[in-house]
Structure prediction request, 836 residues.
Amino acid sequence: MTDAPHEKASIASLAMTRRMHRRRAAETRFRLYGRASVIFSMAALGWLLLSIAATGLSAFTQHWVDLDLDVRAESATDNDRRRLADALAGGFGVQADDAVRQELLALVSASAATDALARNAERSGATLRLTVPVSDQADQYYKGRVDASRPAAQRRLTDRQIAWLDRWADEEQVERRFNRGLFVNPDSRDPERAGLASAILGSVMIVLIAGALALPVGIGAAIYLDGFAPQTGWGGRLTRALEVNINNLAAVPAIVFGLLGLAVFINVFGLARSIPLVGGLVLALRMFPTIVIASRAALRAVPDSLTDSALSLGASRMQAVFNHKVPIAAPAMLTGSIIGMAQALGETAPLLMIGMVAFVTAVPESPLDPATALPVQIFLWSGSAEAAWAERASAAIIVLLAVLMVINGVAIVLRERLQRRRSL
Amino acid sequence: MIDPAPFYMIVIVAALMVGAYRMVHGRAARMVAEFRTETTLPDAQPRHHARLAAALVGLAGVAIYLIGLAARGGDPTLAEDAVWLAAIVLGPAAVTGLCLANVRPDFAARARVEYMAETGLMALALVALLTTVGIVGSLVFEASLFFRNVSVLDFLFGTHWSPQTPIRAGQAGQSGAFGAVPVFAGTFLVTLIAMVVAAPVGLMVAIYLSEYASSRTRAVAKPAIEVLAGIPSVVYGFFALISVGPLIRDAADWLGFGVSAQSALAVGLVMGVMIIPLVSSLSDDVIRAVPQSLRNSSTALGATRSETLKRVVFRSALPGIIGAFLLAISRAIGETMIVVMAASRAATLTGNPFDAVTTVTVQIVALLTGDQVFDSPRTLAAFALGLVLFVITLLLNIGALAVVNRYRVRFE
Prediction:
């Protein structure tokens, strides 16, 4: 019977061991879920960035072709497109009929080439040397995005066109260059000529206007709520209502601000659609609560002892707040405001509401000229099915993300620097 | 192009302000020099007098300009303009004179400047109120115009949505149907899918990063999640449109059933990914707020880490987590660009996540871009939808705030 207690203990420990196994397994599982969640999020981010880089990076280069065109003066027509097609046909040594002309014109950026022809109109008769971008289809082919082995019906280039393009490549007439046009051209109907100039300028104006309005107002409101607003009685209730109101305003969907802008700035005040001024006003309203909340958090982080000691030395409340509290909170307020502006730069929905989706081929000269914005341009380009537009849209996204990264980086660097200098 | 008059006005008023500041400052400084032997701290005094003068001059100038703008109407004569111009110069000049006369030792200039500044700051804070009033006012006004043509009940409970209005009067077959149930159902479906992704993943990310992850993992994962939060929604929309939607369609093709590239699943998935950072940062805050003593007690009773997290931390943080979820839902409902780019515009009433659905925000954009006749039921319908969107997100936010506040009281 001496074994009995030992036996009992071993049975108990068996049950306990099982239980411990189960509990440890649950622990491991839980940890695994956590790790899987983190991996899922990071994989999603990686997939997003990679897919955009894969479609968009190639848009930063573009293929140009050198053409020696025999543009005959006695050409029977004044039509530049036809002259161009005939000259191209001559270059390849094929007989030009309507079908051939159409296919030839689809190889180069026809609008760019005819523009160049028109510029050199008086020089006709001689051989004209032109360097023009190839068409979007040809560009996609040179970039390896057209599968020539697929049946002709499933691709946009005919066998004949591919043969011509190969011939240009063989004769080294084609050169891959940096796509300057992406930054200096405004929008266009032709993907190979479309650029972001109007969108970038529009975005700059919108964000500057929004910042110029929302920063002083938002920071002023935060200073009032933090330092001056009554905290007791009816005034206190009003203050708290105002704070709840600001928190709610920050969570109102962006598109509702667009509706507000449409109803108030365009319908009541009679401002024009599609102009950066209205975009800036709308985004200022959108940014305002974000800036107030960020600035309030910065002000709240300043220890009360600071203002208290200023007050006890006889400073007025205004002096205590502006000479002692605000300077210390300034770096954090600045960072919050810059991040708010970065958000405004990516905002799209409110701008759609106020008509910034117009097709604008001119670079805006003032905030009262029609313009688009960078995110809106992405939206517009992504709406077209052709591969060249998707490529452009991805490139625009890369530009947008790069700018956002720079802005956020600047905000972080500024905060670090100023905080070090101002530290107590 | 731009009317240059406001710029001239700004320059003139600014010049007058500078002038007033200099004059008053000079006079006050001379007076201080006279009194210097008698008072101890007079040096700041001229500045306060000068600031008061500049502020009053600025106010007077702007006020006269605005009154003039309103009074002279659209087509003023030269004489009228000259009178107003004179008023803009002479009014502030008179104010300057008044200020100069009031530069006395017993005149409390600083108190007055500070009163003015405080009032000004209060006015800035009231911009928030003004914005809310503007939103509510414009939405209610335009929506009420819409509900004159379409009854509220038809809008809220009708099941057919095809907002094509007749182009000509009496045109057959295009009467326009504004039953918004399919639109609400689509919004609900997309939001549900997004939350199925974002709620568990966001919560687990927050728990894992704050409780389990090594500092090295955290150093990589935290910035990655922040980057996810900083990416504009138009980029997510593009991602859903060119990568996720086609991938799900191709995968379904491969498995042998047809799915639209605009499926609710693709849109919801991407939206879920977008909301993960919001859920994780909000839950991180509430999980951190759970007192350490609770964890310690649980550990002391022999609970494993996950048991403590699930049975103690999660339960005491539950109200805050629910608040975080409510905010995330409100964000998903109001999200526009992802659905505009990657979801369908045709309203179908379905609960199948592989079907294409439309949402409230998609319809608002669809109704307001394109033909632009204002006051047609078509455009007004967008404001009715906007009002519904605003009310729902407002209720969610207020609910979230109430839950979080009650929870905060429990621990403080």
